[in-house]
Amino acid sequence: MNRRRTGFGVVAVAAVAFGYLVSRQDWWAAALTRLFPSLPQAVFPSATVADLVTQHLQIVGVSSAITLVVGLPLGIWVTRPSGQEFRELVAATVDFGQTFPPVAVLALMMPLLGLGLAPAIVALSLYGLFPVVSNTVAGLEAVPPAVLDAARGMGMGKWRILFTVELPLAARVIMAGIRTSVIINIGTATVAAATGAGGLGSPIYSGINLQNGAWVLEGAVAAALLAILADSVLAQVERAVAPVA
Amino acid sequence: MIRLENVTKRYGETTAVQGLSLEVAAGEVCVLIGPSGCGKTTTLRMINRLIEPTSGRIVVNDHDVTEQSPEQLRRGLGYVIQSVGLFPHLTVADNIVTVPRLLGWDRARMEARGTGLLALVGLDPAEYAGKYPRQLSGGEAQRVGVARALAADPPVLLMDEPFGAVDPLTRERLQAEFARIQRELHKTVVFVTHDVDEAIRLADRIAVMRDGRLQQYDTPEEILDHPANKFVHDFMGADRALKRLGRVRVDSVMRADVPVMAEERSADAVAERAACSESRFVYLVDGDHRLEGWFDCRALVSGASAESAITTVDWREVSVHPDTSLKEALSRMLGLGFRSISVVDATGVLLGIVGLADIEETMTDSDAHISMAPVGLGAAGEAEA
To answer: Cβ–Cβ of A244/B89 closer than 8 Å?
Structure first.
């Protein structure tokens, strides 16, 4: 219990430090100018780092939320008797969703959904589905059959078994899937800039186009720090939902 | 109390249970026994509708089991399985009150019930209530499993090889505990096992099954003495006289008039006491009458020193409890190389002794029964086969 609380404390401090670092536009400008003295404009001019991080978090938040809302019920459904036959189909589909490059999804979605946030959200949601669905299935299938037999034999209904036995026991594995999905999403969300959705991909894309290494570095470093922070936050959540180890 | 009427279960082409009719009276232990695949577990699981019969009717407490929803029905039928199936994420106390929680008992009542049940199954509530299942040994886990099945005080217990996965010593203890609890609570029990000794020890009636059909349904004594056919005869085993000892508790034949010495532990004093004793051994006990050893009078006769005739022992290693079966006592004796064994209570207080002669007497009695049994069936059956 104490270790859990300490873990959350450390993560909270890291989050505050990250927020402060992001808000200090002057630090970024100073550091990038020193690293790239030859460039006339070493810091991305169109938006502050803080704004870019905020946009990025919105893209990741919305697409990850959709991934969860779709992925969790899907994973649960294919482990129920009613969805068992669709298991292979769903597994193949989410597998395909992850092997299909998000940039290609963006390109395919643009004629349908136009520019901006929508095609990026669709591409990222699909891309993150695989770890969520496969870990949900794996977690639920790892629940010992004897436990389920006992639960049924004592008169628990199927919904009660799902919510009070199966999901709590599978929570850690499912949470690990969510964590993987979100971390992948933070990195991949930089492609959203290709459709003009903004986020930390913007300085990277502009930097590549205008051969400005400083902008690329600015976006990449901020995205990497964000991913590390999100990873440790979710690691804490994962530990908190897990049954006593 | 429980009545199966012409119950059949088919899976496609195969028939798991064929036209089974069986009645278990209230407060009785009915043991379903047979080789694997004989349909005993299927039968048990049809009673609480974990499996629905293809045809036939099952009645519990005068109500057809299909009158209620399966969930409602199961909350009134305690269920214990071999692999226990405790919820790993809940404490022992929370595991035990699973059914009371489903029934909406208040917290205080559930807590009291959990404590009471832990004590009933022989686990210290203070120590065990807060533990998690993975901290328990196999035997402890199954005790908790039994406590959980008893939680809402169901009149019926369904037990599927409950003691099948523990070591022989623990199994022996769990069987004795179960017999004690059953004497106290008088549940109607359907108990599945493939262990003949377990069946003989615990059953009021045994249902022997083979290939989905009931072969014989009777008291253990009747089944041992008058097997209905060659299958039952062979399944119960050749050592039926020995098996019968599994039905007899040590305290029913134990002799309580044992020469003991509590004080005056000097060898000479003991020797003096022994001289006027008729039996070969004089038992040495402490102030609380706890067994500490014995004095062998025969050693004295043969001229050995009084000291060398004294054997000091740890009572845990050389004694049995009053509810031990004679079969177990006999096997302990043979194992220890003794001709008699002391009977002590849980704290080591000497209650009496049981000798080989006492057991022989019991065996001779049952031999008499068995010699009258139609063993001729064996020869006829073999000729047929």
So the answer is: yes
Q: Is residue B121 part of a domain?
A: yes
The greatest distance separating any two alpha carbons of chain A, rounded to the nearest whole angstrom, comes to 74
Which pTM was predicted?
0.79
CB contact under 8 A, B74 and A148: no
Q: Is residue B366 part of a domain?
A: no
State residue B372's pLDDT score.
39
Cβ neighbours of B280 (radius 10 Å): 17
Residues B168 and B23 occupy one common structural domain: yes
Total of domains in chain A: 1
Closest CA to B48 of A152, A161, A157: A152
What are the average pLDDT values for consecutive 10-residue runs of chain B, which has 385 residues?
95 93 96 94 96 95 94 95 93 96 95 94 94 94 95 95 89 90 94 93 95 95 91 87 83 85 70 68 85 80 72 86 87 87 89 87 60 39 36
What CATH number is given to the structural domain containing B306? 3.10.580.10
- CA A219 and chain centroid, separation: 17
Question: Do B194 and B257 have their domain in common?
Answer: no
Q: Which residues of A touch B48 (CB under 8 A)?
A: 153
Measured between alpha carbons, how far is residue A189 from residues A69, A96, A138, A208, A209 in Å? 19, 19, 26, 17, 18
What letter would DSSP give residue A165? I
Burial of B197 per CB tally in 10 Å (0-12, 13-18, 19+): buried
Residues from chain B contacting residue A154 (CB–CB below 8 Å): 74-75, 79, 98-99, 102, 148-149
Q: pLDDT, tens digit, for every residue of B110-143? A: 999 999 999 999 999 999 999 999 999 999 999 9
Neighbours of A39 (CB within 10 A): 16
Q: Which domain holds residue A49?
A: 2-25+45-212+221-241
Does the pLDDT of residue A116 top 50, yes or no? yes
Q: Find the domain containing B327 and state its range.
A: 251-361
Q: Supply the mean pLDDT for chain B.
A: 87
B193 with B292, same domain: the answer is: no
Q: Which two tokens mark B199?
A: 């069946």
Q: Does this complex have an ipTM over 0.90?
A: no
Based on DSSP, count helices (H) and strands (E) in chain A, helices before strands.
11, 0
Give the CATH number, domain containing residue A6: 1.10.3720.10
Residues 6+ apart with CB under 8 A from A172: A139, A238, A241, A242, A243
